[in-house]
Design a protein that fits this description.
The protein is mainly alpha-helical. The chain is built from 17 helices and 4 strands.
């Protein structure tokens, strides 16, 4: 007796799913076709042997597909576990192997989420061990691209492959392995996996955590992000990591330039916790952190970004300040009161960092204070800002005088000398 129409339909569907590499669905379809063939064999004994033989072949193929899916799931979730610090890699693999009977393949979003839920290495483990395990798992997964019998639908998707590469990149970023991170980023690009913002951010994190910090490499990655139209668009994490690395490397001018790039490109520098927009109000200068009340809002920024914002705000305020201004305070920074300290006694509020920068980062120091009626703000006294602006202009004039002059230079220096009581050149 030939196979029934139902059995043939199920078998045809199974083959189509197998060719399309939807292996979990193909395995289910093969089992349905095998069950239909068994029913046909029970109905008529004449052709039972051939039908049952074909049913066995379908079940064997279903077992093979399920085994391939389980193996990929184990390795993939192990790689995510290594990146996130959820468990030691060996424990993760053993647990997933035991529970893989009904396991579903972990998606790319889960990988990124697991990397974000970071905890440090387990006891007796260091970042070098975690990097080694992560790269070994990634290599095993990538080997399946060139091994048709071991492929699964999961590992044919560029999105899932990129997510696994990002998980390995996260290990490099947490451990400060700059060379490995850049090599992995280049390999992903070579394989046609277009890196996203998370890929670049992991490399920037590696630059920041490296000892000493790789400021030049981080600046090169940042330039690639903003200049290369094919690269991912930078986000707030990209800016925070780049600026932090440059500040650690005493590259303040470069950090301020990156901050200016963020304002020009409209990169959101604060956490989106409220309705406040990143775009400046109409008629306001380029500082996207300047709100409608003329106050500079740095709350929600990381400390390195806030330092750049304060420097930029002081320069802008000094350029616009009327020398005859009588207001007590001319610049106001919104910092927040540092509520996190209620839960973390070691937390230093952003307000404290801003006060330290204003008092120690400018010459002469700026007089800053926290008003009693607004403890979440820091204000700069107008008189101190005028004094700082005057000293800066004088230093700029002295620097100009020291440059070789073309005619009349000696005369100008002589006039400045007589005005300050210094002897004239004549």
């Amino acid at each position: 007796m030939p196979a029934s129409a139902r059995a043939l339909e199920r078998a045809r569907a199974a083959v189509e799913l197998d060719v399309a590499r939807d292996f979990p669905a193909a395995a289910r379809a093969y089992r349905d076709a095998a069950a239909a063939l068994d029913a046909d064999a029970d109905a008529d004994a004449d052709g039972a042997d051939g039908l049952r033989r074909k049913a066995r072949e379908y079940r064997e193929r279903a077992d093979e597909l399920e085994a391939t899916t389980r193996e990929t799931t184990v390795d993939y979730t192990s790689l995510v576990g290594v990146a996130s610090g959820a468990a030691r890699a060996k424990t993760t693999m053993e647990t997933k192997t035991r529970d893989a009977g009904g396991a579903r393949v972990v998606g790319g979003a889960a990988a990124v989420g697991a990397c974000a839920a970071f905890r440090g290495p387990a006891e007796g483990e260091d970042w070098a061990d975690r990097r080694r395990v992560a790269f070994d798992l990634l290599r095993r997964l990538e080997d399946r691209v060139s091994a048709p019998a071991r492929r699964s639908m999961l590992w044919r998707r560029a999105r899932e492959r990129r997510a696994a590469h990002n998980a390995a990149l996260a290990v490099c970023g947490r451990g400060g392995f700059v060379g490995d991170a850049l090599e992995l980023l280049e390999n992903a690009t070579t394989k046609g996996l277009k890196p996203d913002a998370a890929s670049f951010n992991a490399c920037l994190a590696a630059c920041r955590r490296s000892e000493p910090p790789k400021a030049e490499a981080s600046l090169r990655i940042w330039r690639q992000l903003i200049d290369d139209g094919t690269a991912a668009r930078p986000d707030g994490v990209s800016a925070a990591e780049t600026v932090a690395c440059l500040e650690r490397g005493n590259r303040t001018a470069d950090a301020d330039e990156v901050f200016g790039d963020c304002l020009r490109l409209g990169v959101l520098l604060t956490k989106p916790v409220g309705p406040r927009s990143a775009a400046p109000p109409s008629g306001v200068k380029s500082s996207s952190f300047l709100d409608e009340d003329g106050e500079y809002d740095v709350s929600g920024m990381t400390v390195p970004l806030a330092r750049c914002a304060v420097r930029r705000a002081v320069y802008e305020a000094a350029a616009d300040l009327d020398p005859k201004a009588t207001a007590k305070a001319s610049v106001v920074f919104i910092t927040g009161v540092g509520a996190r300290r209620q839960f973390d006694p070691n937390h230093v509020p952003l307000r404290t960092h801003v006060l330290q920068l204003l008092r120690n980062g400018f010459d002469p120091p700026l007089v800053a204070f926290v008003p009693d009626d607004a403890p979440g703000t820091v204000k700069v006294e107008t008189r101190s800002l005028l004094a700082w602006a005057a000293a800066r202009d004088e230093d700029a004039a002295d620097a100009a005088d020291k440059r070789p002059a073309r005619g009349g230079g000696a005369k100008r220096r002589g006039k400045r000398g007589r005005k300050k009581g210094r002897p004239s050149s004549k």
